[in-house]
Predict the 3D structure of the following.
Amino acid sequence: MHTHHDQAEPVSESHPAEAIGPSLHLGALNATRGTWLGPGWSALCGVIASGAFAFDASNLLLVAFVLILVDWTWPALWTMVVRTDWLAPIARWPETPIIAHSMHLPYLRSGSPGDRLLSWLARVRLWWRSFLMPMTDVSVPSSVATFLIAIVISVAIGWRALALTFAMLALTLLGVLRALRLRYDSNGLRAMVYGTLPWWLGHVAFAPLTLESASIGLMFGLAYRGLMADHNWPGLIMPQVAVAAILFGGYQPEAAFVILIAVVAQGALRSFLRGNAYARRAQIWLMLAMLCGALALLASAPPLG
Protein backbone atom coordinates (compact mmCIF):
# COMPACT_ATOMS: atom_id res chain seq x y z
CA MET A 1 0.00 0.00 0.00
CA HIS A 2 1.16 3.51 -0.74
CA THR A 3 1.83 5.65 2.28
CA HIS A 4 3.10 9.10 3.08
CA HIS A 5 6.85 9.71 3.24
CA ASP A 6 7.15 9.57 7.02
CA GLN A 7 5.25 6.32 7.48
CA ALA A 8 6.44 2.76 7.30
CA GLU A 9 5.77 0.87 4.10
CA PRO A 10 3.35 -2.02 4.68
CA VAL A 11 4.58 -5.41 3.61
CA SER A 12 3.31 -6.70 0.26
CA GLU A 13 3.16 -10.27 -0.94
CA SER A 14 5.81 -9.71 -3.59
CA HIS A 15 6.94 -6.16 -2.79
CA PRO A 16 5.58 -4.83 -6.10
CA ALA A 17 5.58 -1.19 -7.09
CA GLU A 18 2.94 -0.09 -9.53
CA ALA A 19 4.26 1.53 -12.66
CA ILE A 20 1.85 3.17 -15.05
CA GLY A 21 3.88 3.14 -18.19
CA PRO A 22 3.90 2.23 -21.88
CA SER A 23 1.31 -0.14 -23.20
CA LEU A 24 3.36 -3.30 -22.81
CA HIS A 25 5.22 -2.26 -19.67
CA LEU A 26 2.74 -1.91 -16.91
CA GLY A 27 2.87 -4.21 -14.10
CA ALA A 28 2.48 -5.34 -10.61
CA LEU A 29 6.19 -6.00 -10.93
CA ASN A 30 8.49 -3.11 -10.32
CA ALA A 31 10.87 -1.69 -12.87
CA THR A 32 13.87 -3.50 -11.41
CA ARG A 33 12.37 -6.81 -12.49
CA GLY A 34 12.52 -5.61 -16.10
CA THR A 35 9.14 -7.06 -17.00
CA TRP A 36 7.13 -6.17 -20.07
CA LEU A 37 4.16 -8.44 -19.56
CA GLY A 38 1.11 -6.49 -18.57
CA PRO A 39 -2.48 -5.61 -19.41
CA GLY A 40 -1.59 -4.37 -22.90
CA TRP A 41 -0.23 -7.73 -23.99
CA SER A 42 -3.17 -9.61 -22.45
CA ALA A 43 -5.62 -7.30 -24.21
CA LEU A 44 -3.91 -7.74 -27.59
CA CYS A 45 -4.05 -11.51 -27.17
CA GLY A 46 -7.75 -11.21 -26.39
CA VAL A 47 -8.25 -9.17 -29.56
CA ILE A 48 -6.54 -11.89 -31.58
CA ALA A 49 -8.53 -14.62 -29.83
CA SER A 50 -11.83 -12.94 -30.77
CA GLY A 51 -11.25 -13.80 -34.42
CA ALA A 52 -13.19 -10.68 -35.40
CA PHE A 53 -10.45 -8.09 -35.74
CA ALA A 54 -9.77 -6.57 -39.16
CA PHE A 55 -7.18 -3.95 -40.04
CA ASP A 56 -9.28 -0.88 -40.66
CA ALA A 57 -9.54 2.54 -39.06
CA SER A 58 -12.53 1.78 -36.83
CA ASN A 59 -11.03 -1.44 -35.46
CA LEU A 60 -7.66 0.20 -34.84
CA LEU A 61 -9.43 2.97 -32.94
CA LEU A 62 -11.24 0.34 -30.90
CA VAL A 63 -7.93 -1.34 -30.05
CA ALA A 64 -6.57 2.05 -28.96
CA PHE A 65 -9.57 2.50 -26.65
CA VAL A 66 -8.98 -0.97 -25.19
CA LEU A 67 -5.30 -0.27 -24.53
CA ILE A 68 -6.05 3.08 -22.89
CA LEU A 69 -8.61 1.41 -20.65
CA VAL A 70 -6.51 -1.56 -19.54
CA ASP A 71 -3.10 0.10 -19.55
CA TRP A 72 -3.92 3.44 -17.98
CA THR A 73 -7.31 3.89 -16.36
CA TRP A 74 -7.73 0.46 -14.72
CA PRO A 75 -4.19 0.33 -13.23
CA ALA A 76 -4.40 3.99 -12.23
CA LEU A 77 -7.61 3.37 -10.30
CA TRP A 78 -6.16 0.25 -8.67
CA THR A 79 -3.02 2.14 -7.67
CA MET A 80 -4.81 5.18 -6.29
CA VAL A 81 -7.43 3.23 -4.38
CA VAL A 82 -5.81 -0.02 -3.23
CA ARG A 83 -2.29 1.26 -2.62
CA THR A 84 -3.35 4.13 -0.40
CA ASP A 85 -3.11 3.77 3.37
CA TRP A 86 -6.62 4.87 4.30
CA LEU A 87 -6.27 3.77 7.92
CA ALA A 88 -3.66 6.42 8.75
CA PRO A 89 -5.87 9.48 8.11
CA ILE A 90 -8.94 7.71 9.51
CA ALA A 91 -7.04 7.21 12.77
CA ARG A 92 -6.55 10.98 12.98
CA TRP A 93 -10.28 11.71 12.89
CA PRO A 94 -10.55 12.03 16.71
CA GLU A 95 -7.84 14.71 16.55
CA THR A 96 -9.94 16.82 14.19
CA PRO A 97 -11.52 19.62 16.25
CA ILE A 98 -15.24 20.18 16.16
CA ILE A 99 -15.72 23.60 14.62
CA ALA A 100 -18.71 25.80 14.04
CA HIS A 101 -19.89 26.01 10.48
CA SER A 102 -19.83 29.35 8.71
CA MET A 103 -23.22 29.04 7.01
CA HIS A 104 -26.05 31.12 8.37
CA LEU A 105 -29.37 29.92 7.07
CA PRO A 106 -32.76 31.31 8.03
CA TYR A 107 -34.82 29.21 10.40
CA LEU A 108 -31.74 27.08 11.27
CA ARG A 109 -31.67 26.85 15.05
CA SER A 110 -28.55 26.07 17.03
CA GLY A 111 -28.40 22.40 17.99
CA SER A 112 -30.98 21.33 15.42
CA PRO A 113 -30.28 18.30 13.15
CA GLY A 114 -29.49 20.62 10.25
CA ASP A 115 -27.07 22.64 12.39
CA ARG A 116 -25.31 19.47 13.58
CA LEU A 117 -25.07 18.21 10.00
CA LEU A 118 -23.40 21.43 8.82
CA SER A 119 -20.99 21.29 11.76
CA TRP A 120 -20.12 17.70 10.92
CA LEU A 121 -19.52 18.64 7.25
CA ALA A 122 -17.26 21.47 8.37
CA ARG A 123 -15.29 18.99 10.49
CA VAL A 124 -15.02 16.59 7.55
CA ARG A 125 -13.68 19.41 5.38
CA LEU A 126 -11.05 20.27 8.00
CA TRP A 127 -10.07 16.59 8.37
CA TRP A 128 -9.85 16.30 4.58
CA ARG A 129 -7.47 19.27 4.32
CA SER A 130 -5.44 18.54 7.45
CA PHE A 131 -5.03 14.75 7.33
CA LEU A 132 -6.49 12.93 4.33
CA MET A 133 -4.84 14.89 1.53
CA PRO A 134 -1.39 15.34 3.16
CA MET A 135 -1.16 11.74 4.36
CA THR A 136 -2.36 9.93 1.23
CA ASP A 137 -1.14 12.10 -1.66
CA VAL A 138 -4.34 11.10 -3.46
CA SER A 139 -5.64 13.68 -5.90
CA VAL A 140 -9.39 13.42 -5.75
CA PRO A 141 -9.95 15.44 -8.96
CA SER A 142 -7.56 13.22 -10.94
CA SER A 143 -9.13 10.09 -9.42
CA VAL A 144 -12.61 11.24 -10.40
CA ALA A 145 -11.36 12.23 -13.86
CA THR A 146 -9.75 8.81 -14.34
CA PHE A 147 -12.96 7.09 -13.28
CA LEU A 148 -15.06 9.18 -15.67
CA ILE A 149 -12.63 8.54 -18.54
CA ALA A 150 -12.85 4.80 -17.83
CA ILE A 151 -16.65 4.95 -17.95
CA VAL A 152 -16.74 7.02 -21.14
CA ILE A 153 -14.27 4.76 -22.96
CA SER A 154 -16.13 1.66 -21.78
CA VAL A 155 -19.41 3.04 -23.11
CA ALA A 156 -17.69 3.83 -26.41
CA ILE A 157 -16.48 0.24 -26.70
CA GLY A 158 -19.80 -1.31 -25.71
CA TRP A 159 -21.90 -2.58 -22.84
CA ARG A 160 -19.70 -5.64 -22.32
CA ALA A 161 -16.69 -3.38 -21.77
CA LEU A 162 -18.73 -1.33 -19.30
CA ALA A 163 -19.64 -4.51 -17.42
CA LEU A 164 -15.96 -5.49 -17.22
CA THR A 165 -15.05 -2.02 -15.95
CA PHE A 166 -17.58 -2.40 -13.15
CA ALA A 167 -16.13 -5.86 -12.46
CA MET A 168 -12.70 -4.24 -12.19
CA LEU A 169 -14.11 -1.68 -9.74
CA ALA A 170 -15.62 -4.50 -7.67
CA LEU A 171 -12.24 -6.26 -7.55
CA THR A 172 -10.63 -2.95 -6.58
CA LEU A 173 -13.02 -2.58 -3.64
CA LEU A 174 -12.22 -6.14 -2.57
CA GLY A 175 -8.55 -5.21 -2.80
CA VAL A 176 -9.13 -2.21 -0.54
CA LEU A 177 -10.90 -4.37 2.06
CA ARG A 178 -8.09 -6.91 1.98
CA ALA A 179 -5.43 -4.22 2.24
CA LEU A 180 -7.18 -2.58 5.19
CA ARG A 181 -7.50 -5.91 6.98
CA LEU A 182 -4.12 -7.49 6.23
CA ARG A 183 -2.00 -4.41 5.45
CA TYR A 184 -0.93 -5.71 2.04
CA ASP A 185 -2.66 -6.03 -1.29
CA SER A 186 -3.55 -9.20 -3.18
CA ASN A 187 -1.52 -10.65 -6.01
CA GLY A 188 -4.56 -12.70 -6.98
CA LEU A 189 -6.93 -9.75 -7.34
CA ARG A 190 -4.27 -7.70 -9.07
CA ALA A 191 -3.62 -10.54 -11.52
CA MET A 192 -7.31 -10.51 -12.40
CA VAL A 193 -7.20 -6.75 -13.05
CA TYR A 194 -3.90 -6.89 -14.96
CA GLY A 195 -4.12 -10.27 -16.68
CA THR A 196 -7.55 -11.86 -17.00
CA LEU A 197 -9.91 -8.90 -17.41
CA PRO A 198 -7.76 -7.26 -20.15
CA TRP A 199 -7.85 -10.53 -22.15
CA TRP A 200 -11.62 -10.65 -21.77
CA LEU A 201 -11.96 -6.98 -22.70
CA GLY A 202 -9.86 -7.40 -25.84
CA HIS A 203 -12.14 -10.25 -26.87
CA VAL A 204 -15.51 -8.65 -26.07
CA ALA A 205 -14.53 -5.45 -27.85
CA PHE A 206 -14.94 -7.37 -31.11
CA ALA A 207 -17.03 -10.48 -30.39
CA PRO A 208 -18.97 -12.14 -27.57
CA LEU A 209 -16.72 -13.93 -25.11
CA THR A 210 -16.58 -17.69 -25.61
CA LEU A 211 -16.16 -20.19 -22.80
CA GLU A 212 -12.86 -21.38 -24.24
CA SER A 213 -11.41 -17.87 -24.49
CA ALA A 214 -12.70 -16.96 -21.02
CA SER A 215 -11.07 -20.09 -19.56
CA ILE A 216 -7.75 -19.49 -21.28
CA GLY A 217 -7.75 -15.83 -20.25
CA LEU A 218 -8.39 -16.87 -16.65
CA MET A 219 -5.57 -19.42 -16.74
CA PHE A 220 -3.09 -16.91 -18.10
CA GLY A 221 -4.19 -14.45 -15.42
CA LEU A 222 -3.32 -17.07 -12.81
CA ALA A 223 0.02 -17.62 -14.54
CA TYR A 224 0.63 -13.89 -14.38
CA ARG A 225 0.05 -14.07 -10.64
CA GLY A 226 2.65 -16.81 -10.43
CA LEU A 227 5.15 -14.64 -12.28
CA MET A 228 4.62 -11.87 -9.72
CA ALA A 229 5.49 -14.13 -6.79
CA ASP A 230 8.97 -15.62 -6.63
CA HIS A 231 7.83 -18.39 -4.29
CA ASN A 232 4.88 -19.43 -6.48
CA TRP A 233 6.59 -21.19 -9.36
CA PRO A 234 3.87 -23.92 -9.60
CA GLY A 235 1.34 -21.08 -9.88
CA LEU A 236 3.13 -19.97 -13.04
CA ILE A 237 3.46 -23.40 -14.62
CA MET A 238 0.23 -25.25 -13.81
CA PRO A 239 -2.20 -22.74 -15.41
CA GLN A 240 -0.25 -23.00 -18.66
CA VAL A 241 -0.45 -26.78 -18.50
CA ALA A 242 -4.21 -26.37 -18.07
CA VAL A 243 -4.29 -24.17 -21.20
CA ALA A 244 -2.45 -26.88 -23.12
CA ALA A 245 -5.04 -29.40 -21.92
CA ILE A 246 -7.87 -27.12 -23.07
CA LEU A 247 -6.29 -26.82 -26.50
CA PHE A 248 -5.73 -30.58 -26.74
CA GLY A 249 -9.41 -31.04 -25.93
CA GLY A 250 -10.28 -28.48 -28.59
CA TYR A 251 -8.31 -30.34 -31.25
CA GLN A 252 -5.44 -27.86 -31.31
CA PRO A 253 -2.52 -30.21 -30.58
CA GLU A 254 0.07 -28.09 -32.36
CA ALA A 255 -0.67 -25.03 -30.22
CA ALA A 256 -0.76 -27.17 -27.08
CA PHE A 257 2.65 -28.62 -27.97
CA VAL A 258 4.16 -25.13 -28.39
CA ILE A 259 2.76 -24.06 -25.01
CA LEU A 260 4.26 -27.14 -23.37
CA ILE A 261 7.62 -26.27 -24.93
CA ALA A 262 7.28 -22.80 -23.35
CA VAL A 263 6.46 -24.44 -20.01
CA VAL A 264 9.55 -26.69 -20.24
CA ALA A 265 11.67 -23.63 -21.02
CA GLN A 266 10.33 -21.81 -17.95
CA GLY A 267 11.06 -24.87 -15.83
CA ALA A 268 14.60 -25.09 -17.19
CA LEU A 269 15.20 -21.42 -16.38
CA ARG A 270 14.03 -22.03 -12.83
CA SER A 271 16.81 -24.54 -12.28
CA PHE A 272 19.49 -21.82 -12.35
CA LEU A 273 17.70 -18.46 -12.05
CA ARG A 274 15.73 -16.84 -9.26
CA GLY A 275 14.01 -13.56 -8.51
CA ASN A 276 14.26 -10.71 -11.01
CA ALA A 277 16.55 -12.58 -13.37
CA TYR A 278 14.06 -15.43 -13.64
CA ALA A 279 11.07 -13.10 -14.12
CA ARG A 280 12.81 -11.22 -16.93
CA ARG A 281 13.40 -14.38 -18.92
CA ALA A 282 10.35 -16.43 -17.99
CA GLN A 283 8.03 -13.62 -19.07
CA ILE A 284 9.19 -14.04 -22.68
CA TRP A 285 8.06 -17.65 -22.72
CA LEU A 286 4.81 -16.78 -20.96
CA MET A 287 4.10 -14.09 -23.55
CA LEU A 288 4.80 -16.65 -26.29
CA ALA A 289 2.39 -19.10 -24.66
CA MET A 290 -0.30 -16.41 -24.45
CA LEU A 291 0.16 -15.49 -28.10
CA CYS A 292 0.05 -19.14 -29.11
CA GLY A 293 -3.18 -19.66 -27.20
CA ALA A 294 -4.71 -16.59 -28.85
CA LEU A 295 -3.66 -17.75 -32.32
CA ALA A 296 -5.16 -21.18 -31.63
CA LEU A 297 -8.49 -19.55 -30.78
CA LEU A 298 -8.19 -17.41 -33.90
CA ALA A 299 -7.68 -20.51 -36.04
CA SER A 300 -10.82 -22.12 -34.59
CA ALA A 301 -12.98 -18.98 -34.92
CA PRO A 302 -15.56 -18.76 -37.73
CA PRO A 303 -14.43 -16.70 -40.73
CA LEU A 304 -15.30 -12.97 -40.79
CA GLY A 305 -18.19 -11.79 -42.87
